[in-house]
Amino acid sequence: MVGFSLFRSCVVAELETPCTKRGRCCNRLRLLGPLQAIRHLTLNPTSVTSLVKATTRSYQSEDVRGFDHWTQATFQPLNAVLGGANFTQGSYQMLQNRCRAASQLKAFKLQKCHRVAMATHAQKREGDISDAFASLSGLTPEPLEPRFATLKSELIAGKENVIQESFFRLLEALREEIATVKILKSKAIPEIDFKDIKDASTKFSSEYKRRGAAIIRNVIPPVEAMEMKEELREYIAANPQTKAFPSDNPQVYELYWSPAQIRARSHPYLLAAQRFLLSYWHSQDPQALVSTAHPTIYADRLRIRTPGDNIFALGPHVDGGGPERWEPEGYGNAKVYESIWQGRWEDHDPWEISSRLAVKSDLYRGVGACSMFRAAQGWLSLSTTKAHEGTLLVNPMLKHATAYYLLRPFFSAKKGPMSPKTDAFDESFLSPDNWVLDCPQTSWLQGALPGKGQELSDMLHPHLELNSTMVHIPEVRPGDYVAWHCDQIHAVDQKHEGTTDSSVLYIPACPLTAHNAEFLARQRQAFLEGLPCPDFGGGIGETNHVGRPGIEEIEKASQGRDAGMVAFGLQEFDSSAVGLSDTQRELFDRANKILDFYD
Q: What angle do CA 528, 534, 538 make, to 5 degrees?
């Protein structure tokens, strides 16, 4: 008996033999990726030879229909060869999907992408949105392993006094900021109409940078947005096997490649809105390989929250990692929060982008932990939704709140609150005089657990007064785009008290970076195969979904423009374009190589 290694060597020998059929060469080793799915096979030499011939015949076919009829043309002969003993239907499906992926790329003349498209990557375990948050998973805050106490001590070593003084200044500044937010409430969130983004007012710009969140009105025409929601309903109805949370009353669907999502992400108006939001970032390093003028597409989930739901009650939280924000291998070595760790929280610049490029926000491979750099998180509204109707809340104190949730784990209260009610802490409890820098440090990182998002609460983060400072965004309508900073605290209504659905497509704004290009290559493969976005739970995803779009749909959604295809990693970045900086040209060339457009 021989195993995978012999099978692979036979395939290599077969594929490296030039094919003269129609003058095309079939020496690309495109079969090696799919074969990773069937490593468990043990075959005798005769079976290997037959399997190689049957498989390579299908790969050498230039007829796209030959791939579509893979089951009839290849699976049945393989069944006869193998007797159906070790070659499972799941393995067949994997091979079929990989072949269809290759055929799509071939049909769009993207031959140079074959190798990346057929490459394999380790999927995360299966899961849903509840796996990303402790509160939805039934977990409670707790101390972490002892190494985190050491990590915290090292982070402030030699700076204990300035850190304590900085924290006390922060508490005083928070009082003023909280008083302002209590007056403004939802009015703290700036708004702008899509038609005005080319000439945004100074007031909007300053408020957006201060508050961290904004609404861009009428990005997608309302009628078109409503069509997208109807497409979603049809896609879900046609595929009742779709995973969702909670399973008995779905609110958040594990869908990434529905026609509506493909259409929205590639829409030229949405890409223009993202380009506008990304323009508020700046780089202290002129040589940093990042382009905010070229958004890239990230495939996230969707929500159709129904009236009365109180299960998808996600409280205040921050995405982009948990303990990673304190760890050297996460945000530390990148020095994103360096001024905060130096006792100068006032100097922290949340809009500086070059320091973000080296961040590793998913050290624990959490299900739903995002590894792509999302400068702004966001969603496209498909409903008319007001406060308390299953909508979004944000904390509009971006710099203050960020500094607080980072410094809070280093301090403890001398005396507890007079009342256990978290919505009315007494002044003596909140006073700086009642708080002291821990010595020695504990292993607590309030609300942060490995592999989960950072969650906040009044009990763990009392000075933020979250009951008052988590404000509802203004009413949204179909086609509005809501965005908030990647460090921003946000939440979802505890209960949907409205009478109609609260539906959104989660679509963040991601700049082009080398790291994001690497993710695009993996995401492109997942799209072609119908698998979940690489950041999310594994499994077969939409592999067998009826009506799942292909590259043609992305090209159509781009409305004849290249931006949508480029942003998805399906068309190369034009490094010869007029007006690019030298840094952008270098980044384009690197991204094209990562995406396998360059040899």
A: 95
Write the CA distances from 195 to 19, 198, 219, 517, 536, integer angstroms: 54, 7, 8, 30, 34
Show the tokens assigned to 135: 């509160």
User: What is the per-residue pLDDT for 126?
Assistant: 56
Tokens at residue 60, please? 């050498």
| Helix axes of 45-60 and 89-107: crossing angle, nearest 10 degrees | 30
Instruction: State which amino acid sits at residue 475.
Output: E
Highest mean pLDDT among 125-129, 139-143, 435-439: 435-439
Three-class SS of residue 538?
A: coil
CATH (residue range 129-594):
2.60.120.330
The residue type at 65: R
User: Among residues 387, 405, 377, 332, which one has the least CA distance to residue 151?
Assistant: 332
In the prediction, which pLDDT does 110 show?
A: 59
Say yes or no to pLDDT of 59 above 60.
Answer: no
Both tokens of 90, joined, read 């799941």
DSSP state of 465: -
**pLDDT over 90 (residue 561):** no
Contact assessment for residue 197 and residue 441, using Cβ atoms and an 8 Å cutoff: no
In the chain, list all ranges with CATH 2.60.120.330.
129-594
With tokens 């109609």, the residue in question is 500
Tell me how far apart the alpha carbons of residues 194 and 444 are, in angstroms, rounded to a whole number.
44
pLDDT score of 458:
92
> Cα dist. 298→88, 194, 267, 312, 507 in Å?
32, 21, 13, 22, 7
